[in-house]
Amino acid sequence: MPVTDLIKVQFGQEAAWGTCVAANAKLMGLTDATLNIVDEVHQTDKSGFYYPSDLVAEVSMMGEGSITFDLSYEDILWPLDNVFDEETPTGTTTFTWAYDAPDTATVTPNYLTIEFGAPDAEYEACGVLFTELNISGEAGGVWTGN
Q1: Is there a contact between 55 and 44 (Cβ–Cβ < 8 Å)?
Q2: What is the full per-residue pLDDT of the chain (146 aa) written as tens digits?
Q3: Torsion sign across C-alpha atoms 94, 83, 130, 108
Q4: What confidence score (pLDDT) does residue 90 get?
Q5: Rounded to an integer, what distance in angstroms lies between the CA atom of residue 51 and that of residue 73?
Q6: Do 69 and 27 contact (CB within 8 A), yes or no?
Q7: What ranges make up the beta strands (E) of 29-72?
Q8: How much is the pTM?
Q9: What is the DSSP letter of 96?
């Protein structure tokens, strides 16, 4: 079994930002995935005491991560819907998704729940928005995204 089979990333489409849903689409061309917990804690030092200060506040807690994958027609739709806007395909036998760059109106992204991890040992990230999308490749080769 390849090592990439042990890494699982699944997507679920949220109706509203931050409302977790069950993931229902597995990213098939996955080559690498990371998820980091970013926990910012502020601690105020107290004068005249030998022990650590008990004046502590959790300022923010969020996650950040990255996904690298070989592009397929099915896998690329999730990040494109998240970056641009959810697009409805046109056509009956050959489908076309027409994405337009946001130049006149604010984009309403497709919010995602993403499950990271090995089977039966996932971390769940809700309200996911892609901040950067890189697509690269050449004619006749495998295209990649991250």
Answers
A1: yes
A2: 455 566 788 888 888 888 889 888 888 888 888 888 888 888 888 878 888 778 888 888 888 888 888 888 888 888 888 888 777 778 887 888 887 777 787 877 888 888 887 767 788 888 888 888 888 888 888 888 88
A3: negative
A4: 82
A5: 58
A6: yes
A7: 30-43, 56-70
A8: 0.72
A9: B
Helical spans, DSSP H, in 10-113: 77-83
Calculate the CA 28 to chain-centre distance. 15
Residue 15, class by beta-carbon neighbours within 10 Å (0-12 exposed, 13-18 middle, 19+ buried)?
exposed
Q: What are phi and psi of 107, to 5 degrees?
A: -80, 140
Tokens linked to 106: 């604010």
3-state secondary structure of 36: strand
- Candidates 107, 130, 131, 127; CA nearest to 15 is 127
Spatial contact of 132 and 79, defined as CB atoms under 8 Å apart: no
Q: Alpha-carbon distance 96 to 14, whole Å?
A: 23
